[in-house]
Specification:
By secondary structure, this protein is of the alpha/beta class. The protein contains seven helices and nine strands, in the order E-H-E-H-E-E-H-H-E-H-E-E-H-E-H-E. Strands 1-9-8-5-2-3 form a six-stranded parallel beta sheet, covered by helices on one side. A three-stranded antiparallel beta sheet has the order 4-7-6. The longest helix has 23 residues, at 12-34. It binds 6-phosphogluconic acid.
Length: 250
Amino acid sequence: MSSPTIHVYRDAATLAAAAAQHVANLAQTAVAHHGRFALALSGGSTPQALFALLAEPPFANTLPWHAMHIFWGDERLVPPDDPGSNYFHAATLLLSKVPIPPQNVHRVRGEASPTAAAADYAQALRAFTGDQRGWPIFDLVLLGLGSDGHTASLFPGPIPTAETTRPVITVTADYGDRPAQRLTLTPLVFNDARQVTFLVSGAGKAAAVAAVVGPDGAKADPQRWPAARIRPRDGRVTWLLDQDAAARLP
Ligand code: 6PG
C-alpha cells in the first residue's frame, strides 16, 4: 500500500466542502470508467455535514445518482427510523433529497436480529457484486475515527478470527451513548477498495490521528489502533482532516 495522502482544512465546514468535491470527483470517474459508483458510507456525526452538502446544488443536480450504489461500512442494530441508526441520518439528510433509485440504497436491516442482519447484508454484498469474491470492490469507502481509535465498528482489542475470515460481522461495543449492538464490514472488504478516505474532525481525535498517520503510524499496533488494519492492497488511503484533528501531526 502506498503511504496515505493527508489533507488538512481550516475547519469542519471547509472539510465537509472538500469531502463533497472528493466524493463527486470519484463518482464521476467511476461511472465514466465502469458504469457505476459503489460507495460505503461512514456513520456517526462527522459525515452529516457532507451529506447535507451533497443534498444541495451543485452536487444534488450533477452527481450520477442513477448509477450510484450506497452501502454502509457499519451500522447500529436499531430500526431504520431510530436516531441511533446511521441509515436514518443519511436518509434524512441526503438520500430522501436526491434522485437515487431506492433499489440502489443497500441499508443494513438494523431492525433484525444480529445473525439475520449479518446474513442479509452479506447476501446483499454478494448479490451486488455477482462474482465469487462475495463482496464488491468499493470505489470509495468513507471511514470515521473514534477518539479511541476505532473505525467503522472495528474496536481496539484482540482481533476476532471472524474479522479476518468474514466480510460482515456483528460486535457489541460501548462508545459514548451510542447503541452497543453493531454490524460492520471487515478489513477483508475495506482492503479491497479502490479508495479509502478517512473523514475526521475535532480535537478529540487528534491523538488517534497522530497514532495512525503520524511519524510512527506505520508501526501502529492494529489491535490498539483498528484504523491501522485498513491497508488496501491496490487502493489509496486519503485522510481529510480539519486543523483540530490534525493538531498533533508534525
Ligand atoms: C459509527 C461510525 C463510527 C464513527 C466514529 C466517529 O457507526 O459510529 O461508523 O466508526 O465513524 O465513531 O464518530 P463521530 O463522527 O460521531 O465522531
